[in-house]
Amino acid sequence: MQGSGSTRQDDIAALALQAGLKPDLLARFPHALSGGQARRAAVARALSVVPRLIIADEPTAGLDVSVQGGVLNLFLDIRDRHDTAFLMITHNLAVARHVSDRIVIMYLGRVVESGTTAEIFRAPRHPYTKALLDSEPIPDPKHRRAEPPVIGEVPSLAARPAGCEFHPRCRHVRDRCRTEAPEDTQLGDSHSVRCHFPLEETKAVTAMAAG
């Protein structure tokens, strides 16, 4: 990204500022950076090639909540300023909700539901999506779950269940689910689900999804 009249150090300093890093940090070794600073340095490196797409795999893993917010706000700022798209891979639904326009839910490496973030959190239609939302902790000491959101253990990829692969852990399983793999079903212009018996749209969702 070096321009006329600029030096490589000038370009590096400009990238660091875009990523929210102070110039004095540029002289530090990697081990001297905090988790959040190291994550921002990685973003600065990605920006050096002026990307149209950034793929971020668990970008907030291992960071304190306050630091997570700074990294996510940085992503949003880069998206708006440079029209850069982000593909984020995460197990943290709160993170996905904060920064994404669309969400794709996968189970055993296969898509089971996709839709806008608002649709997914307002009314999840696949039992696995609903279980993920119900698994999110609710900051209320009086709240107690009557039963776990999902049952059983994750099966081996080398021995995938017949039929719907989620059926051994699904609380809504029926006979058809055990023998026949579901097709992708469109529920609207932007929402699809791979389930024989999608949950009703009016199904109650968690406090997190409604909040």
Structure description:
35% of the residues lie in helices and 14% in strands. It has helices at residues 8-18, 35-47, 65-82, 93-99, 117-122, 127-135, 175-179, 207-210, and strands spanning 53-57, 85-89, 102-107, 110-116, 184-186, 192-194. α2 (35-47) runs parallel beside α3 (65-82). It has a four-stranded antiparallel beta sheet. A two-stranded parallel sheet has the order 1-2. The radius of gyration is 21 Å and the shape is elongated. It is built from eight helices and six strands; from the N terminus they run ααβαβαββαααββα. With 211 residues, the protein is α+β, with helices and mostly antiparallel strands. The longest helix is centred in the middle third of the chain and has 18 residues, at 65-82. Residues 203-211 have low confidence and may be disordered. A hairpin with a 2-residue loop joins β3 (102-107) and β4 (110-116). It has two domains: 10-100, 3-Layer(aba) Sandwich (Rossmann fold); 103-138 and 149-211, no CATH class.
